[in-house]
Protein 1
Amino acid sequence: MNRTGVAEFLRARREALRPEDIGLVSGARRRTAGLRREEVAQAATMSTDYYTRLEQARGPQPSTQMLAALARALRLGIDERDYLFRLAGHAVPDRLGRADHVVPALQRVFARLDDTPALVISHLGETLLQNPLAAALLGDHAGARGWDRFEAWRWFTRPGDERRKYPAHDRERQSRAIVAGVRAAYGVLGPASTAGELVAELQRRSEEFRSLWERQEVAQRFADHKVLVHPELGEIEVDCQVLFTEDRAQALLVLTPQPRSAAEEKIRLLGVLGSQRFASR
C-alpha cells in the first residue's frame, strides 16, 4: 500500500469538491477548501477518525468496501477509482462484472432529489443508493450485505418480506419482470459473473425462479406505473421514471405521485415519519 499516495490523492479530491456537489448546503463561513473531512467520512459512512488517519498516511490498509465507499463519497470517475484501488494495494474491480461504483453524474442528480423517493440500482437489481424517502417506502436495502442487496434474491428467498410491498394481484407480474431483468443482465455479463452466481443460487433455492427462468423471457423494465403498499399508509400510486447511464449498467429511479393526489400526501407524510412506523394504537 502506498500510504503517502493514498493520503495525497484523498486530500486533493476532497479539496476539489464543494458541499453542493454531494447535496450539502454551503454555509457562509467555511475555512476549509472543498469538503471537510467529517463530511467525506459521513458520506462514506465511516468514522471521521478513520478517514483522518488515511489522509495523514497513518491508517491501516482500507478494504475494498471502504475504497468503494470513498470513491462514491468523493465522486470519483471510474479511472480515478481504479487509481485509488491500486494506490491502496488492491486489484482493480472488474468494470464489466460489477456496477457498484455509481458514476458521478448520476450521483449529482440523485443528491438533488430530496422530496420524492429515488434510488440508484445496477442492471442486476442491486440497490446502490437510496434517499430516506425510498428507504421508508421500500426498505433500507443500500445498507444490506451480500445477496440481500439484490431485489431478485429478496423476492424469491424472502417473499413474505418483499412481496407485501405490492398488491397481491400484481405479484405474479412482478415475479416475471424481475426474472426477465436478471436474464437481460445475465446475457450481458455471462455465466462467469455475479449474474451467473445469482442465477445459480436462485435456481438452487427457489422452484418458482427455476420455472420462470425456463420461460427465456428477457427485458429491462424500469419505467412503470406502480402501486406500492406501505404497512401503515396503505396503497401509494407512483410513476417510476428512469435515467440510465450511457452503458445502461446503472439506473436512477424516481418515484413520483400525481400532483395534489392522496399519494402525494402520503409521500409527504413519509418524509415526516421517516422509516419509523406509527406507534401501536
Protein 2
Amino acid sequence: MANLTHNRPLSPHLQIYKPIPTMIMSIMHRITGGALYFGTLLVLWWLVAAASGEAYFNWVNWFMGTLIGKIILFGYSWALLHHMLGGLRHFMWDLGYGFEKSFSTKVAKATLVGSICLTVLVWVIGYVVRF
C-alpha cells in the first residue's frame, strides 16, 4: 500500500489555510500579548527612572517625547487596547455567545477597527488634556 500522505505536511499550517478575519485576529491577539511584555518593561523603566532621581527621570521623559518614543508608546497603547478588545471577544465566547460565522467575523473586524479608533481617541484626549 502506497503512502499517500508522504508529500503532505503532518499537520496543517498557515500556508494551507486561507486567512480569514477571525484567524488573523487570533494571531494578532497573541502578538499583542507578546508586545505587552515589552510594554511592561517600558513601564518598569519609567518607574526605575522615577526612583533613581530627577535627572534620569527627565531623560526618560525626554526620550519618550521624541518621535521614536511616541511611536513606541502609540504602538504599546494600540497593543493594549487591541488585546483588551480581543480578551472581551474571548470572554463573550467563554459565556457561549457569538459562535455564528457571520457574527464572529463582524466582531473580529470590529476588534481591529475599535482598537484603532480607541487608540486615536486616547491619544487625542491625552493631547487635549495636556495643553
Protein 3
Amino acid sequence: MLKAVVLDGYTLNPGDLDWSPLKELVDVTVYDRTTYSLDEVALVIERAKDVDIILTNKTPIPEEAINELPKLKYIGMLSTGFDVVDVKAAKEHNIVVTNIPSYGTDTVSQMAIALLLEICHHVGSHSEAVKRGDWTNNADWCFWNYPLIELSGKTMGIVGYGRIGQATGRIAQALGMKVLAFDHYKDEGLESESMKYADLDELYASSDVISLHCPLTEENRELINKESIKRMKDGVIILNNSRGPLINEVDLAEALNNGKVGGAGLDVVSTEPIKKNNPLLTAKNCIITPHISWATKEARLRLFNTAVENVKLFLEDNPTNVVNK
C-alpha cells in the first residue's frame, strides 16, 4: 500500500467528515495544518519525505520541495485552484498533479447572492440592533439603520460566465434582475430576454451590481481598479468570491469611502488570512467574510469524494482531472 500525507486536512474536515474512504486506499497520515508560507518549506519536506502521495489544499509545494521528495508520484489538490504547486517542476519529475474542478458551483453562487442580500438588507446588523434593545426603545414601530435596496429590475454584470457565473446569473434572474455577462467563451444559446453577453465597457457602464466569477490570470489581475471603477455607475455594488487579486484593494477602498462604489461584498482578499493593514478592513460599506464560499458540508463532502476518486484512479493508472499533462 502506498504511503500518503494530507498536509492541511482541518479546513476540509474539521471533524464532520470521515477519512476512512481514503485510508482504505493508502497508508495515510493526516496533519491539520503544515504551513501557508514558502519560508517553511523544510516542514513540508520533513512530513512528505517518505510518501508517494501528497494531498494539499493551501500548503505550498514549490520546486524546492519537489526536488527533495524523490519518492513522490502524485500531488492531489483538495481544491480547484492549484497555484500553490509548481506544476512545471512536478511534470519534470513525472509527478501527476490533479485538482477538483466542479464541486462548489451551487455553494459558491449561493454565497455570492448571500453577500449581495446582506448589502441590500444588512440582516445581521439589524438583528444585532434588535438584540441590543434598539427596537424595544424605538419611538416608531420599525426602523432601519441602512438604506434598503430592492434588486428586481436592476442589472447584474457577471465577469466570468462559466459554471459558477451561470448559476449566480440564474439566481439573479429569479430575483427579477437582468444579467450582462462577460466571458471569452460565449454560449449564445444561454442568451434570453433577461440575459445577454456584453463587453466590459458595456458591463461596467450598465450594471448596478458587478460580480466576479473568473479565474485569476495575469491579464485580469487587478481588473477592478481606479480606472475601471470610473467607468461604473455611481453607487455600484461589487461582489468577489472568486480570487482576491482580481481587485486593487487600495482603489476599491478609496471608491467605497468616497461613495463611488455603494457597497462591496468580499469573500476573498489579496493575501489570506487578511493582513491587519488591509485598507478594506476600515472601508465604508464593505462586508468581508473569511473565504467560506466553498465550505458548506455538502460541498466539502463532494470535494472529498472527488479527491478520493482521483487517488483511486491514479492508483489504477488511469488518472483524471490532471492539470499538468
